[in-house]
Amino acid sequence: MLTHTKEKPHLCKLCEKRFQTIGNLQRHMLTHTNERPHLCVVCKKRFTQLGSLRTHMLIHTNERPHQCHICEKRFRQNGDLKAHLLIHTKEKPYRCDVCEKRFNSDGNLRKHKITHTDEKPYQCVVCQKRFNRRGNLKTHMLVHTNERPHQCHICKKRFFQNEELKDHMLIHSKEKLYGCDVCEKKFKSNGNLRRHKITHTGEKPYRCVVCEKRFNRRENLKVHMSIHT
Q1: CA-CA distances (angstroms) from residue 83 to 60, 66, 134, 168?
Q2: pLDDT tens column, 123-171
Q3: Are residue 79 and residue 59 in the same domain, yes or no?
Q4: Domain range spanning residue 44?
Q5: Which of 16, 35, 94, 111 is the most buried (most CB within 10 A)?
Q6: What gap in Å lies between CA 192 and CA 190, rounded to an integer?
Q7: pLDDT tens digit string along 58-71?
Q8: What's the pLDDT tens digit per position in 190-202?
């Protein structure tokens, strides 16, 4: 009956959090003692709760019992399935309290919030450069390893990032997907479009460190630098 009354008579004496059942209190107490009685027989990792162990075991069995009824993609946890379903419904219940931008998962919201704080928690162990997203750090590490995992199946050229490969593939297809919203000229890559847009804005982001002269293209700056050498 406590479920209906919402009464919580069981008190944790350490943090004063209350629980409806003695079982919930006992499981909670493990967070204070750091006791992990539930052992994975495969990798020997230990867990405080049996439910956490059961979820962990799905990694070893590769079992994905939770299936999306729309696209039939499968997930290990029901929480992952619920987050996935928001992609289909386009619902974005998680809102940034700084800029009010909305997201379909709590994880995406947390990653976004870092852009407001300038926090960079992910550090490269080689050059100490810091990043605000784990994905950016992983991409950066390829610079040190010189690994290029993305390969063009036509000319076999390899790239650091999948986006670079996608841009490269347009060379073979001759398709121009990126259109300028000012003059409607089309380009094969987003990078070429960005460089073109500078011609409309008059922006000159490339500066000579010797004479301070500025240029709208990196190539023009390189030609100019030969004057000083």
Answers
A1: 23, 12, 20, 33
A2: 988 898 888 888 888 888 888 888 888 898 889 999 888 888 887 887 8
A3: no
A4: 9-63
A5: 94
A6: 5
A7: 888 888 888 999 88
A8: 778 888 888 888 8
